[in-house]
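Retro notes, structure queue

What went well: the backlog is down to a handful. What didn't: a couple of records were mislabeled last round, so from now on we paste the full input next to the output in the thread. Example, using HAD hydrolase, family IA, variant 3 from Treponema vincentii ATCC 35580:
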Amino acid sequence: MIKALILDYGNVISLTDTEAIDAVMAAETGLPAEAFGSLCNIHRNDFDRGIISGEEMYSRLLQKNGYTKEAEDAALLKKLVDIDLAAWRVLNDAVCEWALNIQKQGFKLGILSNMPYQFLDRYEKEIPPFVAADYACFSCRLHLIKPEPEIYRNCLEGLGIRADEAVFFDDLERNITAAKKLGFHGFVWTGVDQAQKDWLSCL
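Corresponding output:
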């Protein structure tokens, strides 16, 4: 029997356009977009794992891409982090409403997200599903990231359920694949309309 809905944050609860972040940073700083590279890289993983700051992440990224002087510019690094975090703050209100309604029906609501400390410090108390969640599992607080099995197990333990009692949505297929290996009902997120159908198919 299904007991919980578990949601990722980025590109599920949030409306972040990850491809646009580099362009915004380029416009704000005057550096070419390629200076920032992909945000989904080893440096981002360390940021989400809670072992480096956002400033350190961007310093490493700029250094790697040949922007040595910029990598040491504290004001620039802070600006990049501010842009980054603000971009992830944009919420999908329809998803928030759906998740909270599921919880009101008697199901548990969980959050399972790769998330840095600096985002939580600024915005955690402003995001309704975070506040309402029966358990929120954030990577930075465990020093674990998806798709590592231990972070999924922590989420289950926090919710007090088994894997086969959970329905998990994430925008990345590798994270869903890992969840399914542990026994979760898992679906790659494509939008709230499809998610509602997928959820009902598990009940």
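Agreed that this is the format going forward. Reviewer comment attached to the example: The chain has two domains: 4-15+91-201, 19-88.
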